[in-house]
Amino acid sequence: MSQEVRNLEPKVLWNKFADLNAVPRPSKKEERVIAFMMEFGEKLGLPTIKDHVGNVIIKKPATPGMENRKTVVLQSHLDMVHQKNNDTVFDFDTQGIEMYVDGDWVRANGTTLGADNGLGVATIMAILESTDIPHPAIEALFTIDEETGMTGAMGLQGGMLEGQILLNLDTEEDDEIDIGCAGGVDVTAVAEYDEEETPEGSVAYQITVKGLVGGHSGMDIHKGLGNANKLMNRLLFDGFDNFGLQISEINGGSLRNAIPRESVAKVIIAQAYDEAFVFDMQQIVNEIKAEFASTEPNLEVVFEKLETLPAKVMPPVAQFYFVRAMYTAHNGVYRMSADFEGLVETSNNIAKVNVGEGKLSVKCLTRSSVETSKFDLANALRSAFELMGCEVEFSGSYPGWTPNAKSEILDVLTEIYEKQNGTKADVVACHAGLECGILGTNYPDMDMISFGPTIKGAHSPVERASISSAQKYWKFVLEILKNIPLK
Question: Is the pTM of this model over 0.70?
Answer without folding.
Answer: yes
